[in-house]
């Protein structure tokens, strides 16, 4: 029963981490980190991302322009671009490393200790990816709140607000953190007895086959 729980936690951890990694990539390239609405002659909606700024008008539609220079960006956007790239890379490495540490991957009966270490390393990489995804979106959100309540700016001047990318980035970061926690819990929380090496490996492979068959042929 412990092996079934362990395999299930590994699958859930990998799925959460994969979801967080995909969402972090979407956050990196989505041009909706900050929004600005202007009620002029026609409705305008300005959005800013890490790579470009866009304006949406009712009659014209959306038009985007890439930033001309990396050095000309505000500090929070420059650092956010670097951190999001780092998060994407760490998440990809975490998927590769933890994938080889799954119990369902048959890499030899004598290598359970290696697979455990791979799972732990993968979980740590997912933690790092989650932190480096949460840091930039939280920093941009903090700067947006500061500018929104800045008393030196006249009230008539429109204020920037949170964009959809910030919420996606928060969800991505927490998914990566939770996925890493589950993988480390699966690696450290349940131990396979060393004295029953052949039996333990055979039982894990049988449980994995049952899970795969149950997914492929769901009962009616």
UniProtKB/TrEMBL annotation:
Q: Which family does it belong to?
A: Belongs to the claudin family.
UniProt xrefs under PANTHER family: CLAUDIN (PTHR12002)
Predominantly, its location class is other
- Organism whose genome encodes this protein: Balaenoptera musculus (Blue whale)
| InterPro entries the UniProt entry points to | Claudin (IPR006187), Claudin_CS (IPR017974), PMP22/EMP/MP20/Claudin (IPR004031)
Membrane topology, as annotated, equals: Multi-pass membrane protein
Record's superkingdom? Eukaryota
Q: Which Gene3D superfamilies match?
A: 1.20.140.150
- The name under which this protein is listed is Claudin
A Pfam family reported for this protein in Swiss-Prot or TrEMBL: PMP22_Claudin
Q: Where in the cell is it found?
A: Cell junction, Tight junction; Cell membrane
Q: Name one GO molecular function term.
A: structural molecule activity
Keyword Cell membrane recorded: yes
Q: Which residues cross the membrane?
A: 7-30, 82-105, 117-141, 167-187
């Amino acid at each position: 029963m412990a092996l079934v729980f362990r395999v299930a936690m590994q699958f859930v951890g990998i799925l959460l981490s994969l979801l967080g990694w995909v969402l972090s990539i979407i956050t990196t390239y989505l041009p909706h980190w900050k929004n600005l609405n202007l009620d002029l002659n026609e409705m305008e909606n300005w959005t800013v991302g890490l790579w470009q700024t866009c304006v949406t008008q009712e009659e014209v539609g959306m038009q985007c322009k890439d930033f001309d220079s990396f050095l000309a960006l505000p500090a929070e956007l420059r650092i956010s671009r670097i951190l999001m790239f780092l998060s994407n890379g760490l998440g990809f490495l975490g998927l590769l490393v933890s994938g080889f540490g799954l119990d369902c991957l048959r890499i030899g009966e004598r290598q359970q200790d290696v697979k455990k270490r791979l799972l732990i390393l993968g979980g740590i990489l997912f933690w790092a990816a989650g932190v480096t995804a949460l840091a930039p979106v939280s920093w941009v959100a903090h700067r947006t709140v500061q500018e929104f309540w800045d008393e030196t700016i006249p009230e008539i001047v429109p204020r920037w607000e949170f964009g959809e990318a910030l919420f996606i980035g928060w969800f991505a970061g927490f998914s990566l953190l939770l996925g890493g926690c589950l993988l480390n819990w699966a690696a450290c929380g349940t131990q396979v007895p060393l004295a029953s090496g052949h039996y333990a490996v055979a039982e894990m492979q049988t449980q994995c086959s049952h899970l795969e068959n149950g997914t492929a042929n769901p009962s009616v």
